[in-house]
Amino acid sequence: IVPSVIDDHNASYSLLLHCNLGPSERERERERERNNNMDADGGPTLPFCLGTFYYRYFRTWKLNGDAENGHVSSETRPLMTGGARVQAALLYTAAEWLAGLIRTVVNPSLCTQVVLALTTFQVPLFMMKFGQSKLYRSDNYGKSFRDVTHLINNTFILTEFGIATGPQNSGKVILTSDVSGKQRARIFHSVDFGNSFSHSDLPFQPLAQMAYNPQDANVLLVISVENDLWISEDFAANWRKIHERVCQAKWGSGNTVFFTANVNGSCSDRGRLELKKTTDYGRTIKTIGTRIFSFGLGGRFIFASIMTAEGTTRVIHVSVDQGDMWNMAQLPAVGHEQFYSILAANDDMVFMHVDEPGDTGFGTIYVSDDRGTVYSKSLERHLYTTTGGYTDFTNVTSLRGVYMTSVLAEDNSVQTVVTFDQGGEWRPLQKPWNSQCDSTAKNKDVCSLHIHASYSMAMKLNVPMLPLTEPNAVGLILAHGSVGDGISVMSPDVYVSDDGGYSWLRALEGPHHYAILDSGGLLVAVEQTLSQPIHQIKFSTDEGQCWHVYNFTRDPIYFTGLASEPGARSMNLSIWGYRESLLNQYWVSITIDFSRIFSRDCDEKDYVQWLAHSDDLSSPDNGCMLGYKEEFLRLRKDSVCLNGRDYVIDKQPTPCLCTLDDFLCDFGYYRQENSSECMEQQDLKGHILEFCLHGRKEQLQTTGYRKIPGDKCESGIVPERKVIDLSTKCVSNLLEPEPLVSSSASSSSSATIVVAVVLVLLVSAVAGVLFVKKYVCGGRFLVHRYSVLRQHAEAGGTDAPDELDNQVATPTKNDYHDDSDEDLLE
């Protein structure tokens, strides 16, 4: 593959070819090497431009060294020195938000090609802070920048707030700064992708970055440092306080806002919060739960983690109607040292991690039904550390139904497992055909691939990136891994799967940064060097089988990362890092347009039919997954052409007959390892399975199987399962939703009314506890699942009524989790 001839007198070009030709050829193979300075017609070169380029997921980098004002030169864009920080945002009007819709066509004319780069430098001095900011703007994917700091009046922008960009193609941008000597802030806002800015002073000091309404970028939500919730409906022109003492707030669907508040205490008083919602931007507010620990949103579900009466355990409640009605999730209760975590959620189902008692570092994954209420055990000994909150759970977005994660084996080794059927069964990853078992393998002929992810990064292993997949790069997975009996502390290699994780290829030796471009038609990688500057980038046009090496600069840079347009449709990639001079360090970005290496667009003959989930050619059910087969048109590995921005995934679904593979083990049943048969749990044998859903008591009669949510199989094997309405009302342990209350109502209500309300609530609470104790806690209300039920099985299957109490808490899933009792719901 030879790039086209480009007029670039400064570029040098080197082509190194590395192909994975067979198991015996494990080391790099160099067929040809050329290092020549090229002129306009002297040979093949690849264009490059210098500029600062960082991507939308705002990150902060810090270099050591003396501070110096940034400037722009013709060769190196915003010059910055060591103490400075950089943040930036990509402002693509279409590709980023449509990347997940596999049939969406992204029109190149809709992309703004705008990149904003914000550099900040701050020095604390006694009780004051001194700082400087620079704002740069590019309208050509970062190939060149211009200094637009004058548009924000040379104001210092607060580093912790960064660049807040609006959803979809709104063009909205917000930068936040202090107002000197006052407890409030000033914001600069743009409606044209940073081409111009206006400013306004806020009547409060924001606690965190403003949250745009995903459906209307003119509406902003923010919590102040005084824990007041503020809203603006005209893009920061006017602000209105809608509630006090707010602890957490999130946008729901449409105009709905959910938030927790503690009207009589502080946000640290967990388990005593109230969950509220408003659908009219705070003009009326409805309390939908009390005694909340935390809350979160996932798919069409709302989750609330609730503390029991004694304050010793928590339980999960779920709502599918925006909080109007709640059901208790059939999950084990957790104590103070445990936590819940939503690993993944969509409109069909939920993956929920429940931490084991004690500081074990692992728990159990449960998968829900389509109501998010009835859960089945999916995977035991799931690795999820209590200190730091690290899990390797990965949603493989490039193929339906595939998830990877790590388990902590009995010998304390960390091992990778994968499910191809949305949690129905888990299995080890196959050993790559061109790799050998490493020193961790007891049997050198039998081992598997283990993927390095968040846990490895937390353990400071040399793993620069998490596994990478893209929805429009069908079947592709890039990941660091090791081959043995468990994850190795040795330096990992890069592995590629082109079939969603069924088979793997050792693609690159050693750790690399990598990216997917052109909907999978191009892979790029830069070798991780911790202390040496770099000048080469590798790229592959055949899904990682062969790699070419390009020298992108004659003046090496200390590499810090790659950046490309979200959605993996672009052919532009920026390599960013820094160079050192005698007195300082400065940021550099080199943007490469890889489209120049392709001489043509792809046509029909460049694609081939591919059956997903095809792992048994002899079976008539080959390719059936979650009830149907999918055939895709995929690019041939030997086709060197451009998919382009308008590339649309072509897939053809075909329904399948039902088999036991289309069913999860029902509540109270589990699958033994390497078995498709569901076995009844010993501690639930002989128990009548009754539970409360939507205010009605139901009885479950099952042979041990229930259909996987979202499975579309037809006829075939359909195990018997009945849910019988017992025509009996029941209650969950949440307070009934209250009527809407105007947020402007007077807070000085009559003392008589307050006393009456308190008395009514007390009487209702006592009556509710008696009702729950008599009718719900008789050992048949399936809130006492699994671990809790085991503890009380010898006592006739009854649980203490204290375990059922009015408390709603919806956990928030944080990237960093340093509190073992923090529920991670989102």
Automatic annotation (TrEMBL):
Residues 124-735 form the VPS10 domain. The chain crosses the membrane at residues 751-772. GO terms for cellular component: cytosol; endoplasmic reticulum membrane; endosome membrane; Golgi cisterna membrane; lysosomal membrane; nuclear membrane; plasma membrane. The keyword Repeat applies. It holds the Pfam family Sortilin_C. Belongs to the VPS10-related sortilin family. SORT1 subfamily. It is a single-pass type I membrane protein. Signal peptide: none annotated. This is Sortilin. Its main location: membrane.
